[in-house]
Design goal:
The chain is an alpha+beta fold and 343 residues long. The chain has ten helices and 14 strands.
Length: 343
């Protein structure tokens, strides 16, 4: 045996120690980095859907009407495209996708620029001179007496009704007689007023029977021309979204309103189309929507049980809307619309 003693093995300084950047801490950091990077790598399909949602918002006017009036159909329900945004947002959160979140900013901003004004509270305001109401009472209404009572509760100064049958007209006249001493009825449309009606006539919009009228109403603040109209209905069938007859009535009514000589004009009725529908342009040109100017929300009116579109309108020229709203359901398949105006 050697006379040298065997010494225990000594570790070199630093031997056995974990080098910086290794071990559990570095593993957690690497895992976090992977998750962070993963947020940008996943959710591309959701991001693609978000961009596709933007297309009908930006280019709905480019969709032609040559096939089944598809363009007008998209115009009519265009605000509902926004429903896809929160649904995709939930999917982006579940997937923890930063890419999808950023992509969703595009349709959100576009939709907000197009329709955000409808959601601004406090529009309009100021003193009002006249309250007007318009309602398609529905020819199949089973309880016109109750509908009349619902409308009387709104305490409007001028009431316009559309789709009135001869039998129901007698009921509305009887119900309104005490409140509205002035009445004009033409065909299936009628107007009741607390103020004198100095002149009235039927308006030809291309039907075999009368579905529009014009009346000069003498309010305390001055005379205004009031139009009441029920335009032709649209149809959705095997041939698509059919609206040719309605479009013809729009043009004829629009031409007559454009020639109106009185400064104050109020146009009320069931137009069977929304303000977004390009086909309404000949009628809405130069007119202002009371709901758009002084109402909160979209003011959907049809169908009454679950409104999806505003096809009943109060449009004005030369007067100022101060407030507008939609009433609760009556016995009709439409909801009544109301506006307060400053003459």
């Amino acid at each position: 045996m050697s006379d040298r003693q065997t010494l225990p093995n000594r570790r070199k300084p630093g031997a056995g120690r974990r080098k910086p950047g290794t071990g559990r801490a570095s593993s957690r950091a690497a895992s976090r980095q992977q998750r962070k990077g993963g947020r940008w790598r996943r959710g591309w399909f959701i991001a693609l859907l978000a961009l596709l949602v933007t297309l009908p918002l930006l280019f709905h006017r480019r969709i032609p009407n040559s096939f089944g009036n598809l363009g007008s159909l998209v115009d009519t329900f265009l605000p509902w495209v926004g429903v896809a945004i929160p649904l995709l947002a939930v999917a982006a959160i579940v997937r923890r996708s930063a890419t999808a979140g950023v992509a969703l900013l595009v349709p959100t901003l576009v939709w907000g620029m197009m329709f955000g004004n409808a959601l601004i509270p406090g529009k309009g305001g100021g003193a009002a001179d006249v309250r007007v109401l318009s309602h398609n009472v529905d020819a199949a209404n089973k309880d016109p007496e109750q509908t009349a009572q619902d409308l009387l509760a709104a305490d409007a100064d001028i009431v316009a009704l559309e789709e009135i049958t001869p039998a129901d007209l007698k009921i509305y006249k009887a119900q309104f007689a005490e409140t509205y001493p002035h009445v004009v009825a033409r065909g299936t449309v009628a107007l009741w007023s607390k103020f004198p009606v100095e002149e009235s006539q039927s308006v030809d919009v291309g039907f075999a029977w009368t579905r529009a009228l014009r009346a000069e109403v003498a309010t305390p603040q001055g005379k205004v021309a009031v139009y009441v109209a029920h335009l032709a209905s649209v149809r959705v069938g095997t041939s698509g979204f059919t609206s040719d007859q309605r479009n013809n009535t729009i043009k004829q009514l629009g031409q007559q309103i454009a020639q109106e000589k009185l400064a104050g004009v109020i146009v009320m009725g069931d137009f069977n189309g929304t303000a977004n529908d390009r086909s309404l342009a000949p009628l809405t040109y130069g007119l202002r929507s009371a709901q758009g100017a002084a109402g909160f929300g979209f003011g959907f009116t049809w169908p009454s049980k679950f409104p999806m579109a505003r096809i009943d309108h109060i449009l004005v020229r030369g007067v100022t809307p101060t407030k507008a709203w939609v009433m609760d359901s009556t016995g009709s398949d439409h909801r009544p619309v109301v506006a307060e105006l400053r003459i």
